[in-house]
Amino acid sequence: MLRRGLAWQKALGNPAHAVSDPLMRNSFFIGLSRAANKAIGLLFWSVAARYYSIADVGLGTAMISSLELVMILSRFGSDVSIIRFMPLRDKDVVFNSGLWIPAALSLAISLAFLATMDTISPDLSFIRDYSIFFIAICLAHSATLTIGYALISERRGGAYLSQNLLLSTRIPFLPILAGMGCIGIFFSLGAAYIIALVVSAVQISRNLRFRARIDRMFLEDTLRFSSLNYLASVLNAAPALILPIMILNMLGPIEAARWYVAFSVANIILIVPDAISTSFFVEGSHGRDMGKGIFRVLSHTFGLLLIPVVIVYIWGEEILGLLGPEYAKSIDLLRILVLGSFFVTVYSLYIPIQNIRARPGIVVLMNFARFVFLLGLSYIFIFSYGIIGVGYAWILTYAALSLAVACEAIRFGRAKKGIDLP
Length: 422
Known about the structure:
By secondary structure, this protein is mainly alpha-helical.
């Protein structure tokens, strides 16, 4: 146990060891994949801003958020289960169960979403005219996500990177579909997911076999873990997907577009902690002792965050201005979001620790608190401060969560004389 912990710390502090260390190598590819995805996303919206009106961009962001919301509701904890159990169980069983259950749920939830569109968001009711395409894109997105997490679990970071790079094919479709208005933005993304699905399915088939079968015994054995992580995932992702729709309904499409762009830029800052926390979970699931160097990882992550945060504070307005002068008006919101990245990092590293320790109930509790505070405070602050009120809600929520994590770490440290993960 101690030897593995020292080896991990050695890898963190020595670049030569880091290259061969699975944690750092996988973190690098995951981070590069997320960075590419964010960069592609910004380029996507930059091109969209030139070919589509700001109102179309606002509606397009709400449509894409609706798609992502369907994805989150349909995952049933499969992403976490794939990473946690593929190293321990029959890989084909875990993969195919994680593929077909979300696909079936995606179909059911997208149909329910389309049926209740007038109630959920009347401004998006026109999506029903494209129901078949919406459902097809949902299914392609679901399968692409499952394959991506299987590649991560297999430590095939390079293949995961290539899958994310394929999503850049959405950009050439934007000018081609510009005549369709906001629906052209949505269809451009959908076409990219279909392309990524076809190529990544070929890649994963070299290691795993596709079967139209869901293993009942596997579901029974992992039901509690999967269901709790499903609830945790929904609570974790829902605020970011609900907020564009909330802002659209409360402040209109222009403010929705400004929020989405500022949030997308801020998310680039979080690539490093996101990548390290994901790889942290992968290595812990493969039986590696991840407890010894957690505070060192946290300090390194803070150091890596400092430079991009300073860059955004100094040149953030110019960065937003590249998308158009209207988007530069959200600079104050962007600065608040990136300042909160330090608090987000603490929370992001706390979640995989609890999953490695098989404590999904704690993850659900923390994500529920995040869900309630972030959406509740956003709704209240929007009335008083407008779009920047969402930024205030963001930083206050994560500061409170970080304080709770720190208090638990102090209590646990006094009890155990240091973190010890099974």
